[in-house]
Amino acid sequence: MKTYATWLLGVRRWVIAAVLALTALLGAFAPPMTVSVDPSVLVPANNPAIQAIDSITAKFGSKYMVLIGITPKQGDIYQRPVLERVARITQALRQRPEVVQDNLLSLAAPRVRNISGHADGFDAKPLMAQVPADAAQMDQLRGAIAANPVYQQTIVSADQRTAAILVELKEGSQGVANILAPIQAI
């Protein structure tokens, strides 16, 4: 063993060069590597959990949901700067191709409606077509949210301190990080 170690130390430069050359050769012919965190790719398709995910995705759409929460440092969401931010983010998300537009939910989303009944039927107006400009309009918004309990604890927290924007993203082949990058930039 001592003679082998002595020999190896004598030719150490050749050994290092050979290892570097072999590494470079293997690296040049190696396929590009990607990191995937999608369980559908990592687990066999006959796995019951994957089959359940695929079934839910087929019935309800994408499996990539993002929740953006906006909470003011003081007070509740019924402040003009808070609601302006909700409207601005919602508008920016409406321009993104990776967002499933039919499932975008926020106070400012066009599909979110203030539904109210009356003797002749009902009205379904946008919940917040524009940011309330005064206290009376702010009270109208507060009343509309109270009258439509489906929005409570979905796009408005129970304590009225956080407004949520729910975003569904289309599934893409470029990976979750690349799908999320434009959303995070917004």
Overview of this protein structure:
This protein has 186 residues and is α+β, with helices and mostly antiparallel strands. Helices cover 44% and strands 14% of the residues. It has seven helices and four strands; from the N terminus they run ααααβαββαβα. It has helices at 2-10, 12-29, 39-42, 48-60, 80-94, 135-147, 176-185; strands at residues 64-70, 113-118, 121-126, 163-169. Strands 1-4 form a two-stranded antiparallel sheet. Strand 2 and strand 3 (121-126) form a beta hairpin. The radius of gyration is 27 Å and the shape is elongated. The protein starts with a helix and ends with a helix. 13% of the residues are buried.
Relevant terms:
single chain, 186 residues, alpha+beta, two-stranded antiparallel sheet, 7 helices, 44% helix, 14% strand, elongated
Structural class: alpha+beta
- In the sheet with the most strands, the strands line up as 1-4
Portion in helices: 40-55%
**Radius of gyration, CA atoms, in whole angstroms:** 27 Å
What is this structure, in a nutshell?
The protein is α+β, with helices and mostly antiparallel strands.
Ordered list of secondary-structure elements with their pairings:
Blueprint (H helix, E strand, L loop, with lengths): L1 H9 L1 H18 L9 H4 L5 H13 L3 E7 L9 H15 L18 E6 L2 E6 L8 H13 L15 E7 L6 H10 L1
Antiparallel strand pairs: 1-4, 2-3
